[in-house]
Write a structure and sequence with these properties.
heterodimer; A: mainly beta; 7-stranded mixed sheet; 4-stranded antiparallel sheet; 0% helix; 60% strand; B: mainly beta; globular
């Protein structure tokens, strides 16, 4: 059974640009969540999508947005990138028969 | 607001030296407490889910326990390959039907020397 797939694995962007990250959840999972991980703040919840609807949102500015498609794949977008947005962005999927969240390998975003 | 505090921040052990990691939590109605292992540059790997006080789960050299205020991850006779960051997270019923929101602790960096 394939796990959670995130693309790309690495990105380098310039301040002010925007970026789109992609996540394919485990087959059959309908919930996709996004997290930002930094050395100083640890893992912080960004938002969760379920059946193409945002069901929960963390305390991040509106520059961070996401969406989910009918096949449960999800994308997150960060506009007007700032240096502080440099982080490991993690996607997790959950559903099926349990409440556990399973993570992908992450996308390492570096803003220069 | 849900809160999770892990201790110690870092732990160095000799191979075979058993120890425990602590996770203290404050949550408005615990749906589940989760333990993950994270290797450098990788995503967290799921280890255990605990749902209620008194529950215990084991996997190889790891054993997780849960009380009403904290959880412990016991590591018995660790090996160098157990070196990783161990993360604790909670999910509360305040999220309603949302299964996706986890509140994480800062993690414990475990190093096991041969």
């Amino acid at each position: 059974k394939a796990g959670v797939t995130q693309t790309p694995r690495y990105l380098i962007k310039t301040r002010g640009q925007q970026v789109t990250l992609s996540c394919s959840p485990i087959s059959g999972h309908r919930s996709v969540s996004w997290y930002q991980q930094t050395p100083g703040q640890g893992l912080q919840f960004l938002f969760e999508y379920f059946s193409e609807t945002q069901r929960n949102k963390g305390n991040f500015p509106g520059r961070f947005s996401g969406r989910q498609f009918s096949n449960s794949r999800s994308e997150m977008n960060v506009s007007t990138l700032e240096l502080g947005d440099s982080a490991l962005y993690l996607c997790a999927s959950s559903g099926g028969t349990g409440v556990e969240a399973f993570f992908g390998q992450g996308t390492r975003l570096t803003v220069v | 607001e849900d809160q999770v505090t892990q201790s110690p921040e870092a732990l160095r052990l000799q191979e075979g030296e058993s120890s425990s990691l602590n996770c203290s939590y404050t949550v408005s109605g615990l749906r589940g407490l989760f333990w993950y292992r994270q290797d450098p540059g990788k995503g967290p790997e799921f280890l255990f889910t605990l749902y209620s006080a008194g529950e215990e789960k084991e996997k190889e050299r790891l054993k997780a326990t849960l009380t009403k205020k904290e959880s412990f991850l016991h590591i018995t006779a660790p090996k160098p390959e157990d070196s990783a960051t161990y993360l604790c997270a909670v999910q509360s019923y305040a999220g309603g039907t949302s299964y996706g929101k986890l509140t994480f602790g800062q993690g414990t960096i475990l190093t096991v020397h041969p």
